[in-house]
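In the lab's daily routine, each protein ends up as an entry in a very long ledger. A line of letters takes care of the sequence, but it says nothing directly about the fold. The three-dimensional part falls to structure tokens, numbers that each stand for a local backbone shape. The outcome of that step, for a single protein, is printed below.
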Amino acid sequence: MGKVFFVRQGDYGQGAVDSAVKRVFDHFGGISCFVRPDTRVLLKVNLVSGHDIERRVTTDPSIVRAAAKLVLEAGATPFIADSPGIDSFQRAAEKAGFVQVAEELGIECRELTDPVDLPPAENADFKHIQVSRQVLEADSVISLAKLKTHGQMYLTMGVKNLFGTIPGRLKAGWHYNVGLNREKFASLLLDIYAGVKPTFTLLDGVIGMDGDGPTSGEPYSFGLIGGCVDALTMDFWLCRMLGGKLEDYPLYLAARGKNLPQCELDAGDVEGDFSPDYVFPNVKLPKTRSMRLLPRIPFIERLMTSRPVHIPEKCIGCGRCAAVCAAHALRHENKHLYFDYGKCIRCYCCHEMCPVKAIKFQESRLLKMVNFFTH
């Protein structure tokens, strides 16, 4: 039995999605292999911030509904949960369609709050990570991830989805602590994933996102729903299937640094409707940095990394960008942003939280030259 199972699914029609999601679970023995009767199951959605469903920023409600119905059929109690970076949870969850799913099925839709220490996994690099108490008190966690590109981390899929178990503004603190080092941030993601131990990861790739993800890219029809017990293996295979190079993927570099066995990919890992050598055509991947050249001198690091720049004509003056900046590297005045690039840690949270795509990436000349000769 393959470690990763992909089903071809071209739209979000509920009946077809229900069948596809059941087929994914059935490949691994059925939902009863992951959910016990009379238990509480946290459905960890991808809820970055409040966006219309058609933007394809968040997990589609049809995927959430299909997973929740299977959990209910298994005799367990699911609840939908996440912690957006800056938005009101209620507003964001309503725009994403999660509140409506919860009301329809008579289950809870809750914000992840109340940070507590996550017991560190063996060989964890980060010993003091706080996640929501609700994550640790749930009997099991099913991660409902979204297939998207990511300006800072190249891609965001199964493993990255668990970063949302850190409540609210604590996420910004981690961005600041890790700074420009993407591989170090990826190591943090690995430690969160290993500590939370999701029982299953279900991936919404029906319509994902390429370009400047995870919020300002363009919808891309991958036509895929994926599932796995080991999200790291799935993420590595999808990097290849999107046309990316593992050496450009910080998560892979961090896993290789930890000598994790998932770095050794085998074609037998992948089963279902997509072969392991399938490559999605014309996927636009981020070029915010030359991932294969990783100088550790901060000054050189900044020269090698794209910087965020403002597009004044698109700005609505909401101030979310300045509010989310953990490095206090920008100020907002009269629909104009002023960046202090000496302080900027290139986490791109300002870009991620902008609701109108008024912040873009600008490559340095050095980065353009490196990308030209290495891609």
